[in-house]
């Protein structure tokens, strides 16, 4: 049976653990708020971009010579997969679920005989996938979104993808990230970036643009050529923002659970401590009384 | 009050401006143009430069944009800027540093695509410098 001293030490150590987890929970909560508002602030741009793309794609639909980024290279042999994870752990199943999904997806592609190239964002995913797919790594990014995700960071990743596409280094690009549903729920999302699937609004926009009949300067194709790489950057940016918000949400939930578990643990340990103490006192009393009786 | 057009300027990070204005002058890819209410609908690429917002017959705001796209309809002007800041907020030293950094990037670039990219960022930086000079002139 554990001695009183051992129990006391144990209780103290669990108490300090609880302090840490509850502090982490609070930090995550405030970061979550910031990440959420950043994600909301970025929404107008994405919406308007979508509207413009819809109008353009609508007017170009059915015409030959659509940019490759929209129509694809006509092959699917080389696949680029971007996996977005976090740099830090202690956030529940956040990284685990991404890694699991990525593994399934990549294995699937490999089985179909495709060439896979990986771009890793975040230290955790890089470490966990290294054993299986280390040879497929093109590059890894760290410290993204340490002080809130900036567009410049997303742009540097997108530029990399654009350059590679321009040099025909891949045919299809997919990004895997956690989409933020609520503070307690994230959803692993797989989104195709290249060739870009025309947003669903395109159908409406088509009817719209038929009414509006935009003039284009310089030409539709030239604008699309510019707009698509931009759009890619926006999609990456959005994925990073979503992932960042999800990470904070996941960490908040995980730390909340940890804090609660530590509390339960302290309670049960305290009860055991008190019982042991009482038992010891009783034992000493019995010894004294029986000693006195023997006289 | 004169007729107005709904002007929106959005950068990837946030909605910078959203207000009714009388006219905006936009540095389009094929020449500057002013967008008044009931302008014919158009979508245009924008080169790096300064957007002048007109309110009450005179320039009320001057905003530097690092290129992007603008969508004009009869009732609204939507500008998607890669980067946007008030001309008043430009700092000479920072602009100089940017020009220099882009020039270095051109020298260091390997491959055609990378070089083009660096050249674009140089164009942005130079346009920024012009905006700064025009600020002093105003």
Protein described:
The complex is a heterodimer of chains A (295) and B (138). Helix content of chain A is 65%, strand content 15%. By secondary structure, chain A is of the alpha/beta class. Chain A has a single domain (26-253), classed as Pyruvate Kinase, Chain: A, domain 1 (3-Layer(aba) Sandwich), CATH 3.40.1380. Chain A has a five-stranded mixed β-sheet, with helices on both faces. The longest helix of chain A is centred in the last third of the chain and has 75 residues, at 220-294. Chain A starts with a helix and ends with a helix. The model of chain A has no long low-confidence stretch (mean pLDDT 87). By secondary structure, chain B is of the alpha+beta class. Chain B folds into two domains: 5-87, F0F1 ATP synthase delta/epsilon subunit, N-terminal (ATP Synthase, domain 1); 90-137. A five-stranded mixed β-sheet of chain B has the order 2-1-9-8-5, with no helix packed on it. Chain B has a five-stranded antiparallel β-sheet with strand order 4-3-6-7-10. The two termini of chain B are 27 Å apart. The chains are: A alpha/beta (295), B alpha+beta (138). The A-B interface holds A 38, 41-42, 44-45, 48-49, 51-52, 55-56, 150-151, 154, 159, 162-163, 166-167, 212-218, 222-223, 226-227, 230, 233-234, 237 and B 8, 10-15, 28-30, 40-45, 68-69, 71, 73, 78, 80, 82, 111, 113-114, 117. Strand 6 (215-217) of chain A pairs parallel with strand 5 of chain B.
């Amino acid at each position: 049976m554990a001695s009183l001293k051992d129990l006391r030490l144990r209780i103290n150590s669990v108490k300090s653990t609880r302090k840490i987890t509850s502090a982490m929970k609070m930090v995550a909560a405030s970061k979550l708020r910031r990440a959420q508002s950043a994600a909301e602030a970025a929404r107008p741009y994405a919406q308007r971009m979508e509207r413009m793309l819809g109008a353009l794609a609508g007017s170009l639909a059915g015409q030959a010579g659509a940019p490759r980024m929209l129509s694809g290279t006509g092959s699917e042999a080389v696949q680029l997969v971007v996996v977005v994870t976090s740099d830090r752990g202690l956030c529940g199943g956040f990284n685990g679920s991404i890694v699991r999904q990525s593994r399934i997806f990549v294995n699937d592609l490999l089985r179909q005989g495709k060439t896979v190239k990986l771009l890793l964002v975040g230290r955790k995913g890089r470490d966990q996938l290294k054993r299986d797919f280390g040879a497929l790594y093109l590059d890894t990014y760290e410290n993204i979104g340490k002080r809130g995700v900036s567009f410049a960071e997303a742009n540097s990743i997108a530029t990399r993808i654009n350059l590679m596409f321009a040099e025909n280094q891949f045919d299809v690009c997919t990004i895997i990230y956690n989409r933020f549903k609520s503070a307690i729920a994230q959803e692993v999302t797989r989104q195709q970036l290249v060739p870009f699937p025309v947003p669903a609004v395109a159908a409406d926009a088509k009817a719209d643009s038929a009414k509006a009949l935009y003039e284009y300067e310089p030409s539709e194709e030239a604008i699309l050529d510019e707009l698509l790489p931009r759009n890619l950057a926006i999609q990456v940016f959005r994925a990073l923002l979503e992932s960042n918000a999800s990470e904070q949400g996941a960490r908040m939930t995980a730390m909340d659970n940890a804090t609660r578990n530590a509390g339960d643990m302290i309670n049960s340990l305290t009860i055991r401590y008190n019982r042991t103490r009482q038992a010891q006192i009783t034992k000493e009393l019995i010894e004294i009384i029986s000693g006195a009786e023997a006289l | 009050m004169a007729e107005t057009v709904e002007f929106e300027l959005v950068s990837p990070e946030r909605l910078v401006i959203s207000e009714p204005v009388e006219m905006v002058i936009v540095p389009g890819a094929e020449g500057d143009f002013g967008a008044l209410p009931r302008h014919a609908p158009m979508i245009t690429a924008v080169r790096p430069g300064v957007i002048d917002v007109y309110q009450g017959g005179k320039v009320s705001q001057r905003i530097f944009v690092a290129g992007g796209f603008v969508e004009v309809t009869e009732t609204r002007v939507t500008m998607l800027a890669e980067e946007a800041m008030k001309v008043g907020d430009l700092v000479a030293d920072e602009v100089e540093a940017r020009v220099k950094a882009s020039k270095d990037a051109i020298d260091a670039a390997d491959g055609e695509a990378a070089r083009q990219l660096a050249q674009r960022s140089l164009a942005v930086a130079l346009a920024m410098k012009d905006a700064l000079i025009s600020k002093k002139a105003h």
